[in-house]
Amino acid sequence: MASVQDIGLSAAINLMSAFAFLFAFAMLRLQPVNDRVYFPKWYLKGIRGSPTRSRGIMNRFVNLDWTTYVKFLNWMPAALKMPEPELIEHAGLDSAVYIRIYLLGLKMFVPITLLAFGVLVPVNWTGETLENIDDLTFSNVDKLSISNVPPGSPRFWAHITMTYVFTFWTCYTLYMEYKAVANMRLRHLAAESRRPDQLTVLVRNVPPDPDESVNEHVEHFFCVNHPDHYLCHQIVYNANDLAKIVAQRKAMQNWLTYYENKYERKPTNRPTTKTGYGGFWGTTVDAIDFYTSKMEILAEQEAAEREKIMNDPKAIMPAAFVSFKSRWGTAVCAQTQQCHNPTIWLTEWAPEPRDVFWDNLAIPYVELSIRRLLTTTALFFLIFCFMIPIAFVQSLANLEGIQKVLPFLKPVIEMKTVKSVIQGFLPGIALKIFLIILPTILMTMSQIEGYTSLSYLDRRSAEKYFWFIIVNVFLGSIITGTAFQQLKSFLEQPPTEIPKTVGVSIPMKATFFITYIMVDGWAGIAAEILRVVPLVIFHLKNTFLVKTEQDRQQAMDPGHLDFATSEPRIQFYFLLGLVYAAVAPILLPFIIVFFAFSYVVFRHQVINVYNQKYESGARYWPDVHRRLIICLIISQLLMMGLLSTKKFAKVTALLLPQPILTFWFNRYCAGRFESAFSKFPLQVR
Amino acid sequence: MASVQDIGLSAAINLMSAFAFLFAFAMLRLQPVNDRVYFPKWYLKGIRGSPTRSRGIMNRFVNLDWTTYVKFLNWMPAALKMPEPELIEHAGLDSAVYIRIYLLGLKMFVPITLLAFGVLVPVNWTGETLENIDDLTFSNVDKLSISNVPPGSPRFWAHITMTYVFTFWTCYTLYMEYKAVANMRLRHLAAESRRPDQLTVLVRNVPPDPDESVNEHVEHFFCVNHPDHYLCHQIVYNANDLAKIVAQRKAMQNWLTYYENKYERKPTNRPTTKTGYGGFWGTTVDAIDFYTSKMEILAEQEAAEREKIMNDPKAIMPAAFVSFKSRWGTAVCAQTQQCHNPTIWLTEWAPEPRDVFWDNLAIPYVELSIRRLLTTTALFFLIFCFMIPIAFVQSLANLEGIQKVLPFLKPVIEMKTVKSVIQGFLPGIALKIFLIILPTILMTMSQIEGYTSLSYLDRRSAEKYFWFIIVNVFLGSIITGTAFQQLKSFLEQPPTEIPKTVGVSIPMKATFFITYIMVDGWAGIAAEILRVVPLVIFHLKNTFLVKTEQDRQQAMDPGHLDFATSEPRIQFYFLLGLVYAAVAPILLPFIIVFFAFSYVVFRHQVINVYNQKYESGARYWPDVHRRLIICLIISQLLMMGLLSTKKFAKVTALLLPQPILTFWFNRYCAGRFESAFSKFPLQVR
Q: B37 with B91, same domain?
């Protein structure tokens, strides 16, 4: 077990490395050549122009003004300065509310930390249990935790009281935050200028009709059932071929622009190209003429394909976007059942145009139902059995296996350094690769489940990832062994034993999780702001591929807040904070540093870098809230388990109201606020 | 363990007693004097008149036509003859669909019984395990059950296959029934003539407004938000005092009619009465004059009270019934959220006027939320700890306790017969009394939860009673010990052990449950048709209290189908059938007899006796369906537990898809049909 000094040293090293990242970032961001990597949002907004033209040749690439280097941390106040309404205007409500999650972490844990250090740390410190045990090596860190309180001691009353205080405070901040976010969302919806998607309903599962086309059928249905409000509709076509032609034409247009620019700069000789693939072989022709003629051919193809799709009944999907004359009519149609068979004519608020996930618009109800059953089963196995295929791959990737399949590699493998590298890294790499592609797997599963908008897909993937983290990272770190072994032992244990088994191990793992927070949390955030991968890719692209201004625009990869993976990770820190608040308060300052640092970094990123793919109006908040409640209940159950092993079992029953009240609080909040995120009140038009 | 002969004898006795009941019923129902007890529905409909006037004095009371006695069972075909559409017309959809639950039992269990007797009984019978064990007393009944198959035998493949067949068949019948009932409901709603409640929405939680009265506030809100459809509204007054005056006036009117009739028959002397309570003392006055003047005073009081309520803002409740011009506008208002605060302006389809539970119309949202938390907690303790207060009462009611409190009873108590009666009956009586008042307790709990209609209250009480039966009757009979002890042992056992513990005991309890079905089921149904209590009460009232025709009308107690208590009891028989289908098929014929007998009896009762308090249009079906699914899943889990103890553990995993698929089937059905029971499609107007 690490001592306070060890942890202090580790913290110092991690802080230093985080500062090194920050310093590197501060240096790099000041170089004009990196401007598009660190401020892409302003370029996309058209506010910031390319600096490469206006300045001198040296100034174009390197910043020589030494005064800017002195104030290398001044991006932090700059990031905090923008007021929230402006931030919403600038980056959208999704991003602004996302940042509030970190702020919520601060609001929640700063008072909890003060209380825990004021009350629990003295109580634990003077417990004097560990000093009396000679054969155990203990450290000052453990003396700060609940382990130092003797079993059966009345000191546990302090812990019980404090868990109630913590629960109450957590619920209070959650309630205030839910209320604030709900109001922000309603203001946001009401203040927006009339956008088409606010007056549009997505209709799916239009039943086939023998006498009418989908187009006529939709029109007749809505003319009859919403006569006063129906405006028009747009049916959905399967236009994959058309999309290919359009993409081709765009590429040709880019080449044409490139050669036209070239010709403009040097009007003496017309540029030439070759007719083969990529312009590398074939007969040499005049480039501008060649691409102009190609463009014409593609334009004709496009028109023909468009014509074909419009007249081909097979290209029509049984879905449509129906527009209404008023928000009232739209709300009515989106929120009511259309037909007495509830599996056809399904209506919902149309997602934003950017938010639509087109592939899933035409899945029949029965298929949808089966798909959800299958993915739920698959998710269960993914969470509890994911180690099995990885162990299989690892067993294949051992030395004998490789020698057998590829005997000619034998002399190389038998070299000592190569051998140790393979033995040391290969098994780890299999796991690492799996963890990297895990979000993609989860997103694919959500897509198979058949949700119709990107925002919904993100929310569902986040839910899956959250459970994966809870089972495999949290429980997996506390109880060693694979999730499958845990599942088996849990099934064979009485349900009251599970919190005990987990709860007892918690105080012992405090130092492990402190290190985890520093390495994964602090360093991860610092790496986020440095944007190493986009930086390298941008410069590579800029050097080798960029031909026109449009290419440069595309080489810039602003990225976006990836809700599906980053939100469950934040939840994990909330969970750690709540679990350890009463057990080992020493962990709390590390959590607070994480939240504070993340808040500044992500505020900066949201303002200067990220370009969101869609705007859902913070519709994900009920999910965030629910998962926070789950974390809270987990922490309460584990506390009960821990206390019941401390010869304090009778009093532990006093903790029983906590999960019940928290569950009830969740129900209450859901009833009070959730509809603001799924429904649209008739009063607001 | 009982042999087949024992069970046969017991069945014969129970059948005989049931037939005795039926014979008694057949005799009694033919007597004209009992006509109002056995055919009250026809009286209430005004189709059947009082036979006492038209016939001779003897014929008025006793039926002397011997031919009618010969065909004493002919009420059975008569009950079955009425076609379903006519039955719906005559007794309402609620009753017609309720009877279908028994029919569903037949549809489900007749093929299952045939299959079980064709396949499983031969397999079990030739298992030859019990014959080889000498020290066990076994009977032919056990030879028919799964206990006779040797552990680890491949014969269990037959049981596994059959459980799949049974599951499939059960789900199929459930699906067809859900579909049929949903269609019946939709036809019923569409076919009904326009009733006011179909165009009315109940609005609750009208927020207080400082400037406007509730009346104006409601009017303005709906004029603004539903301008094209709003017709009018009726606010709800707290008129308890008025209701008392009206009741008083009704009683006076009855006395007046009585004396007027008396005077009519004997115009020579005017009837007199006394001014004191009940006419027993006080000064003698002319009765007709006295009651006429009383009526006038009350009419004045009534008008004054009415005036007072209309003008008193405190008497106005924050709820209103809002009527719309079209079903479309009503559907829109009932099914959409009105205000961005989802806890005010709550709208729902107005219940039928008879169905409204007035007391709960004005409960604020927060209070409602707390009430539900409290009743849920109370229900949990009621189910698991109900034996504790009863044991306490029983301990008080023992001999020493009585002697201590009432020492003068000592000589009486010490008499031997009295002693044995007290010791034998008192503890049982405490339990019996509790079980009799249990439905009332559950209904009170549902009322506290704050539902606004009688039908909803019935549905919620049924849900509570169902869980009480599952835990205390089903599990309580299989595992001896109180529910609280069970709960404790379940918490201390691994979750996989629970189905094993319960599953192993199941085959041993087959004869117990067969007896239960005969005593509680068969005899209970026969007692239902005899209507002993209403019969006795009617004759008592008719002899001593009835003064006018109106009194006689009221003395008739037609009763009603008590959904809250009788539906969970049917579910219990479904559960027994499903659990024992693959374990001990011998139980199935008894279940079939129960369902067939109940079907005939309740069809007769619904046609001739019951007068429903409200008509909800079979809105309870999703609950019935869900509970049947729960029974099915319980039976599957117990089968898994049973098989895993038969040295067949590996193959038991093959049963795992059953509960998962059943759960998915439930989700599918809910998505497919449930909205037909809670929403109202816009297409149907």
A: yes
Domain check: are B222 and B338 in the same one? yes
Residues A209 and A260 in one domain: no
**Same structural domain, A149 and A263:** no
Domain count of chain B? 3
Range of the domain at A56: 4-194+472-678
Whether residues B324 and B392 share a domain: the answer is no
Q: Are residues B599 and B639 in the same domain?
A: yes
Backbone CA torsion sign across A407, A411, A414, A417: negative
If asked whether residues A300 and A427 sit together in one domain, one would say no
Integer Cα distance of A493 and B493 in angstroms: 7
Q: Is B82 exposed, middle or buried (0-12, 13-18, 19+ CB in 10 A)?
A: middle
One-character DSSP codes across B558-601? -----HHHHHHHHHHHHHHHHHHHTT-GGGHHHHHHHHHHHHHH
**Chain B residues inside the 8 Å CB shell of A683:** 225, 338-340, 345
Is there a domain that residue A282 lies in?
A: yes
Give domain status of residue B578, yes or no: yes
Chain-wide mean pLDDT for chain B? 81
Q: What is the DSSP string of A640-679?
A: HHHHHTTT-HHHHGGGTHHHHHHHHHHHHHIIIIIHHHH-
The answer to whether residue B514 scores a pLDDT higher than 90 is no
Do A491 and B491 make contact, defined as CB atoms within 8 angstroms?
Answer: no
Question: What are the angstrom distances between the C-alpha of A65 and each of A31, A32, A51, A71, A74?
Answer: 10, 11, 15, 12, 15
Cβ contact B682–A186 (<8 Å): no
Residue of A nearest to B489 (CA): A494
A376-384 long-range CB contacts below 8 Å, 24 or more apart?
A377/B660, A378/A445, A379/A445, A379/A464, A379/A467, A382/A441, A382/A445, A382/A468, A383/A467, A383/A468, A383/A471, A383/A472, A383/A483, A384/A471, A384/A483, A384/A484, A384/A487
Which residues in chain A have their CB less than 8 angstroms from residue B336's CB?
A: 331-332, 335-336, 679, 681-682
Indicate whether B481 belongs to any domain: no
* Residue B170: per-residue pLDDT: 95
- Signed CA dihedral, A450, A452, A456, A458: sign only: positive
B340 with A683: Cβ contact below 8 A: yes
Same domain, A356 and A372: no
Identify the residue with better confidence: A181 or B283: A181
Query: Helix, strand or coil for residue A567?
Result: helix
Question: Looking at the predicted complex, does its ipTM rise above 0.85?
Answer: no
Provide the whole-model pTM: 0.81
Total residue count of chain A as it appears in this document: 685
Q: Greatest CA separation found in chain B?
A: 95
Is A679 close to B493, i.e. CB distance below 8 A? no
* Contacts for B586 with CB less than 8 Å, ≥ 6 apart: B7, B121, B141, B144, B145, B510, B514
Residue B156 lies in a domain: yes
Q: How many CB pairs under 8 A join A and B?
A: 118
- Residue B420 makes CB contacts below 8 A (sequence gap 6+) with none
Count the neighbouring beta carbons within 10 Å of the beta carbon of residue A321: 21
Contacts A366 to B, Cβ<8 Å: 668
Q: Residue A685's pLDDT is what?
A: 42
Q: CA B550 to CA B256: how far, in whole Å?
A: 12
**Residues B587-623 pLDDT 10s:** 999 999 999 999 999 998 888 888 888 888 888 999 9
Least-confidence region, from A22-26, A346-350, A554-558, B314-318: A554-558
> Is residue A116 a contact partner of residue A585, using CB atoms and an 8 Å limit?
yes
A660/B494 touch (CB, cutoff 8 Å), yes or no: no
* Residue A92, Ramachandran bin (φ over 0: left; ψ between -120 and 50: alpha; else beta): left
Mean pLDDT of B662-673: 88
Nearest C-alpha neighbor of A253 from the set A507, A451, A547: A547
CA separation for the pair B249, B302 (Å, rounded) = 9
